[in-house]
Amino acid sequence: MLDFEFYSPTKIFFGKNAENKTSHAITWAGGSRVLLVCGGASAKKSGLFGRIEAQLKEEGIVFDSIGGVKPNPLLSLAREGVRKAVDFKADMVLAIGGGSVIDTAKAIAIGAANPDEDIWDVFWLGKKIPLKALPVGVILTISAAGSETSSSAVLTNDDTRMKSGINADVNRPKFAIMNPELTYTLPQQQIRNGIADIMMHTLDRYFTAALGNDFTDAVAEALLRTVIRNGPVMLKTPDNYKAASEIMWCGSVSHNHLTGLGGISDFSVHQLSMPLSGVFDMAHGAALTAVWGDWAKYVMNSNPGRFARLGREVFGDAASYSAVEDAALSSIEHMVAFFESIGMPTNFSSLGLGVVSDEILRDLAERCSYNRGRVVGNFRPIDHDDMYEIYKMANR
C-alpha cells in the first residue's frame, strides 16, 4: 500500500427527515448569512425549498438565493453566484440539489472568498490551488456525483464548451444532509445516470497500477456489488427506502477517496467523457458508460488479471478460462451488460450521437488531451492518439 493522506471532514446527517436539522447544521458550521443554491423548479415544486426557507426564518438565519443550475453546470451562473455572495456578504453557501448544484456552490464559495481572482482563469485553469473558501453545506436530492463528500468540483465554460474540474481540500463540504426519501421522485433517467456515476467513481480508482491494497480493494468491490444489487431495485421501486439509502450512501463513499486509498487513481474514463458532455451537453453518467467498455478493451492487456478479478469478486464469475485474457474480456462484458440492463448507453449510437465524423472524433481527442498537452490515466496512461482510438472504437 502506497503512502496516503486521508481527509474527510464532512459531517453527515443521514436518515428520514434529516433536512429538519438544516438550521442546526448551519449554526454548528458557523453560518449566519447563507446563500442558497438550487437547480430548476423541482426543489420548489416538491416543497423542500419552502420548508428550508421557513426553518431558516424561524431560527433567525439570514439568507438569499440563486437558482437555475443545470446539468453540466455553467461557469456563467457560478460567476453570477460569486457576485451575489459578495454583495450579500454571505458567510456560507448551502446547496440544495445534486452534483451540479453542489459543484456550483463550491465554485461560488471559492470565488466569494477570493473576490479578486476569477474562478475559471485562476483556479479552474490550474494557475493556483484555492486555499480558502466559504464553508459549504449540502442538502442532497440526487444520489450520483458524490460531491457532497468530495474535494472535486466541475464546471463547463459557456464560451468554449470546455468542461474542467479542480480538486482542493477547501472544496469539501462542512456538512451533508442526506435523506433518501428526497430521491423518491427522481426521473428514471436521473437514477440510471446516478448509478453509473457512482460505479465509475469506484472503477476509476479500482483500475490502478498500484496494486496490493487488500482492504481498499475489498471496500471497492463491496460497493460495486451493493450498487449492482440495489440499483435495479431502486429503478423498479424508487420509494424502496432500503435500496434508496444504500445507493445514497454508496454515492458518498464512492467519491470521498476511501475506495482508492493506497493506490493512484486512473480517471481516464472521466477525462474521456468530459468532452462528450461538454460539447454535446450529455448527462455525465451517460457519457461515462458510453466509453467505458471500449476504454477497458483498449487498456485491458496492461493487466488482464485486474479485470479478471473484477469479474470474480463483483460478478461472481467462477467459470474456468483457458487464458486470463478470456476472463478479463468476460468481466468487461459483464459490466457492459449491466449498464445496458439498466438502460445506459455503451457506445455513441446508444448515447444518441449516432456514428459521428472523423473530424468530431479528432476534435474530442484534442479537447481531452488539451491540444496534445497532457497524458491521463495510471492503469495505462493514454495520450492523444490513444484517446482518438478509444473514441473511434466507441463510434458505432
How would you describe the overall organization of this protein?
- By secondary structure, the protein is of the alpha/beta class.
- Helix content is 50%, strand content 10%.
- It has 16 helices and 8 strands.
- It has helices at 22-28, 42-45, 48-58, 75-88, 99-113, 119-124, 188-206, 214-236, 241-254, 268-280, 284-299, 304-315, 324-341, 348-351, 358-368, 384-394, and strands at residues 11-14, 33-38, 62-66, 92-97, 136-140, 152-156, 163-167, 175-178.
- The protein has a 6-stranded parallel sheet with strand order 1-8-5-4-2-3, sandwiched between helices. A two-stranded antiparallel sheet has the order 6-7.
- Strand 6 (152-156) and strand 7 form a beta hairpin.
- The longest helix is centred in the middle third of the chain and has 23 residues, at 214-236.
- The radius of gyration is 21 Å and the shape is globular.
> What is the strand tally?
8
General shape: globular
Q: Could you give a short account of the major beta sheet?
A: 6 strands, parallel
Query: Strands of the largest sheet, in order across it?
Result: 1-8-5-4-2-3
Amino- and carboxy-terminal Cα gap:
40 Å
Low-pLDDT residue intervals, each spanning 5 or more residues: none
Mean pLDDT, rounded to whole units? 96
What's the tally of helices?
A: 16
Radius of gyration: 21 Å
